[in-house]
Each structure stands twice: as structure tokens, then as C-alpha cells.
């Protein structure tokens, strides 16, 4: 069941909210826990009932292992704590490896050793990468004595709550257990319905109106590259940048729909997406993109490897290992591993650059940094989207295949550019190409300068870890522009308000989204 499907929008979600109101009013918060757990199991089973036992079995297994870890830790038996922790993590990774990486390992073995083992074509359970990492973090924290006291019902709610089950955010136990205990848990508040519906509608609009309409701009370039056809500069860059926008609005839309759906039940999920295309460098990008995955990799991979504590060479090694593993987490293919490794390499380059170049705090320096980061990571993202390294290389060749007329215009400089890898075999510039450039500028200005969803709603604390204080630390760029001779400075916060104008804004977005529900498309992160 997808968040953008009519079944979810018009049946499951309204029915679950109505049941929640009745159960919370008459039976209390513990009954709501049970209700939402049953609803989450039904939500997951709608896709494939055969994998419900896997979901339940992994939850029960990890809960019991964590109980054993806690008991042995209380007895001072660190040896058994380590044994149980290792056992739990190995089982979790083995299950993930079986479902996600079996064919990858078989295919790699067939290529390396010239064997002919048959691929298994195992159907990947939705969300397994997300809830596996969630359970591993829980086990590690249990071994450190950092897990709050809870029972099986609370734990199952933590790992199965449907808004975050399929594609994150990867919630931390401290963020959930603190909200489901006590008489005020799941309180029925009009502000929660107002805020939850607003966030959900904005996310739905991003998915079905924006992300799904960038998709058709992506396919021509990658289909031509897969067929071995030569690409020109504009077609290659159109495919790469359109996919960058498609992925942006797709994942941003899902993340906000998850936040909004959870808020309808009085639960605040952590922020998972914070305008990553405003990033000044690749480190800043990963602080903003899939923030809970970055948090997991930092706490449970990068720091245990040694982090930055053992000198620069170890720092670079740890960054490379962490980002390479992130690439394999995104997909069971070598081009994903290469994508992650290149991401790690850009992270290393960023650290090396900052070790001898002091950042300049000026608008022109920040603009240059954002542009360099945007286009550099656009090129890296080609490895993510392409089905193989060969297709990615074909896209890269097209990116440097400039119009033939430019070669004649540049004269001797064209020869120098050819020496650097440029070609001048592309068709001449047409009006459609200039229109694409204009749209690129418009979309970049939209994402850079206007407030994002959480900035619009900061006054109402839209996420577990976001409110007015966080907005003041990182205000929208439009509010930072100083006054000029022609334009006054923006001295008031641009925010959504619960008034007629705010209601019209949400209503228009909802209408446009519903009118765009001609077909139901899967979220891109569901395949990870």
C-alpha cells in the first residue's frame, strides 16, 4: 500500500484516524498502541502477506536478544553481552543479505570464477533495509545500557509503526519510547490534525505533481545510453539533472508524508530531509540528505571504525568505507558500490580542501560553493541512476559532447578543450535547449531561496527535532538577502499560518495532487 494510492488516501488512513480517535477517547493510550500495531501489520501485509511473519519474527527475535543483553549487562557479564550482540547483529545482517544480496553475490561469483550458478530472483521485502538498521541500532544501544525500559507492545510499535516502516526515517528508540508512555501519549489535539494534514498534503503534492512529472524527462537519456546511442550535451545533462530533481521531490515528498501521517496520531518523527541542494559542500549535503541514515552510519559505522580520532589517513579510510557501505545499502550492484565509493572520495576531497583553504563567509563564495556542489554531485548521481557502469560512462561522454557550432566559435580554445576530453559533435543549440536552461535556473532559485516545509511550519514544531530554534539557526536564504537600492530586505519570517490563506494554500495543493492521481507510481526509495 503506497502513500499516494487511493486505497491509502481515501480508505486506510481516514479509517485508521477515526478508529484512533474512538479508541483513544474510550480505551486510552495503551489501546491505541495495539490499534496502530494491528493497522501497521495490515498496512505491510497489503503488499505481500507472506512477509508479515518475517516482520513479526524479526521483531520478536530482536526484542528477546535485547532482553538477554540487558539481563547479562545487569549481572556484569560483558562476555555474554558481546556474544548476544554479535549473534543478533549477524542474524539481522544475514536476513538482509539473503533477501537483498543473494543474486548480487551469485552474479559476482559467476563473473569472477566463470561459473553458472542460477540466480534466485528473491522478492525483496519492502523496507527491510530500513527496519534492519533500526533493529541493529537498538541492539547496540541495549549493549551500552542506553535503552529505556519498555515492553513488547511498545517495542513492536517502535519497529513497525506504518508511516516510517517502508522507507524511513530510521527512527531511534529514544525518539519513540518517550512519546508512547504516560497518560498523555497519543493525545487527541486539533493542532496535530491541522499540522499533520498540512505536512502530508505538501508531501503528496511534491510526489505526484512534481517528482512524477520529472520522470519522463529522465528516461530518454538513459534509454539512449543503454542502447549505445551517442548523446549530446543537452540530452545528457537533461537526464542527469531531471533525475536529480525527481529524486529530490520524490524522497522529500515521502519524508513529509511520513511526518504528516505520524502527526495525525500525535507522534513526531525525526526530520529526514532538509533542503540538501542548498548544501555548501558534500559534508553539508549528507547532513541534509536522508539525515537519519547519515546519523546511523555516523554512530554505528564511522565512529566504531575510529572516526577522526586516529589521524588523517585513518579519517579518510573510515570515510571511504562508510560511504562505500552506504552505496551498497542503496542497491545490490557494483555501480551502487562505485557510487558510494565516489561519494566517499568527494568527502575526502572536501576535508582535504578545507584543511588548507579557509572558508569565505560571503554571498558570492556561498553561491559558488552551492553551484560546484550541485553540479559535482549531479555527475556522481549518474552512477546511482544508471543500470550499469557502461551506461553511466555513455552519459558522461554526452555531458562533454558540446554543440558543433561551439567548436567553430571557440577556435583555438576548442582544440585545448578537446585535449581535456571535450567533443564538439552535438547538434546546434535550439530554442528548446534554452527553455531547459531557464527552467533549471527557476527550479534552483525555488529550492535555494524559498522556505522549505519545516521552515514554513517551524512555529508548530513539525518534526521531533525541528522547531523555531532550528529555523533561526538556518533561515531561508530569501530572509538573508540584505536590502539593496531596488529591493528591501525581507525582515519578517515567511511561514504558514492557520488562517483562510493557509487553508486555501493547502486546499489548492490537495486538489492539484488528487487531480494528478492518474496512475500510482512507487517511491524511488522503496527499492532500497
- Alpha carbon gyration radius: 25 Å
Strand percentage, roughly?
under 5%
SSE succession: HHHHHHHHHHHHHHHEHHEHHHH
What number is the mean pLDDT?
A: 90
Which strand order spans the largest sheet, edge to edge or round the barrel? Answer: 1-2
Total DSSP E strands: 2
* Residue share in helix: 55-70%
What is the 3D shape? Answer: globular
Helical run tally:
21
Q: What low-confidence regions span 5 or more consecutive residues with pLDDT below 50?
A: none
Content-based structural category: mainly alpha
Biggest sheet overview: 2 strands, parallel
**First-residue to last-residue Cα separation:** 16 Å
List the helices and strands and how they pair.
Layout: H1 6-26, H2 29-47, H3 52-74, H4 78-113, H5 128-143, H6 152-160, H7 173-180, H8 190-226, H9 233-263, H10 282-288, H11 291-302, H12 312-330, H13 334-356, H14 363-385, H15 389-399, E1 401-403, H16 404-410, H17 412-419, E2 423-426, H18 431-449, H19 453-456, H20 468-473, H21 500-515
Parallel strand pairs: 1-2
Helix pairs in contact: 1-2, 2-6, 3-4, 3-5, 3-6, 4-5, 8-9, 8-15, 8-21, 9-14, 9-15, 11-12, 12-13, 13-14, 14-15, 16-17
How would you characterize the overall build of this protein?
The relative contact order is 0.10. Strands 1-2 form a two-stranded parallel sheet. Helix 3 (52-74) packs antiparallel against helix 4, helix 8 packs parallel to helix 21 and helix 14 crosses helix 15. It is mostly helical and 528 residues long. The chain has helices spanning 6-26, 29-47, 52-74, 78-113, 128-143, 152-160, 173-180, 190-226, 233-263, 282-288, 291-302, 312-330, 334-356, 363-385, 389-399, 404-410, 412-419, 431-449, 453-456, 468-473, 500-515, and strands at residues 401-403, 423-426.
